[in-house]
TrEMBL record:
PANTHER family: SCP DOMAIN-CONTAINING PROTEIN (PTHR31157:SF1). Gene3D superfamilies: CAP (3.40.33.10). The lineage of its organism: Archaea, Methanobacteriati, Methanobacteriota, Stenosarchaea group, Halobacteria. Residues 111-222 form the SCP domain. This is CAP domain-containing protein. Signal peptide: none annotated. It holds the Pfam family CAP. Keywords: Membrane, Transmembrane, Transmembrane helix. It comes from Natrialba swarupiae. Residues 63-97 are annotated as: Disordered. It comes from the Archaea. The chain crosses the membrane at residues 20-46.
């Protein structure tokens, strides 16, 4: 039995109450501290998580073709008289390969001869002079921004050839226009394609001609005129990837 005065016992009760309150305050402080630590941890690590997400690299997964094979060899470039306006080779860099107009020309020549062979026709001999005249016309169309057989000076295919040489008694011309490295509609089936190689460009150009009645007739000699024994392809590629192509045919005297 506690024999201390009541006033002392009241003091002890007060002390006990103070200790209870103090312990409650300590618990509250600890709880707040723990909660603060958790909250602080979430805030601290959240930017790290976001940075990780932002560091993910997004890769372009377009299906790109394989680079072109070596262009097939052509017959001797005879005759070799050159059009004075012949610009020579032009190039355009794609994700797959640098496309050279000279490679496109050789692929077109081979592809045309393959199509002719499918119809029982003899291959065309490569003619360097005819190719030079073709190449000059392709560049002229690009530079003067027209697309036609007759140029702004009212000169047609035979006029242009006769100004350089004169050994063809029959002459014909196919022209085509396409793009490198941008979507274009494929002739025949309407599919959307992109050309990234010299071989792909050449196939697209020949497809254009074979899906047009008059151009197909010129290639397969269904035009009612003399048959061809020579051919020359001239391609010019602009800096922004526009491709102009001229394929001229010759029947030598």
């Amino acid at each position: 039995m506690d024999r201390r005065p009541a006033s002392e016992r009241v003091g002890d009760a007060d002390d006990s109450s103070d200790r209870v309150i103090l312990r409650a305050i300590v618990r509250l402080v600890l709880a707040v501290a723990v909660l603060s630590a958790l909250v602080f941890g979430i805030v601290t690590f959240a930017p790290s998580t976001l940075e990780t997400v932002n560091d993910v690299e997004f890769v372009d997964v377009r299906d790109l073709p394989n680079p072109s094979a070596d262009p097939p060899p052509v017959d001797e470039h005879y005759p070799d008289v050159t059009d004075p306006d012949d610009p020579g080779a032009s190039t355009y860099e794609t994700d797959v390969e640098p496309i050279s107009s000279a490679d496109v020309e050789r692929f077109v020549h081979a592809e045309v001869n393959d199509r002719r062979a499918d119809h029982g026709l003899e291959p065309l001999e490569w003619d360097g002079t005819v190719a030079s005249v073709s190449r000059a016309h392709s560049q002229d169309m690009a530079e003067r921004e027209y697309f036609a057989h007759v140029n702004p000076d009212d000169e047609g295919p035979f006029d242009r050839f006769s100004a350089v040489d004169g050994y063809c008694r029959g002459y014909g011309e196919n022209i085509a226009l396409t793009w490198v490295d941008r979507p274009v509609e494929r002739p025949g089936n309407g599919d959307i394609v992109e050309y990234h190689t010299a071989e792909g460009v050449a196939e697209g150009l020949v497809d254009q001609w074979m899906n047009s009645t008059s151009h197909r007739e010129a290639i397969l000699e269904d035009h009612g005129g003399p048959g061809w024994d020579r051919g020359g392809v001239g391609v010019y590629i602009t800096d922004d990837g526009e491709v102009y192509a001229s394929h001229n045919f010759c029947h030598e005297y």
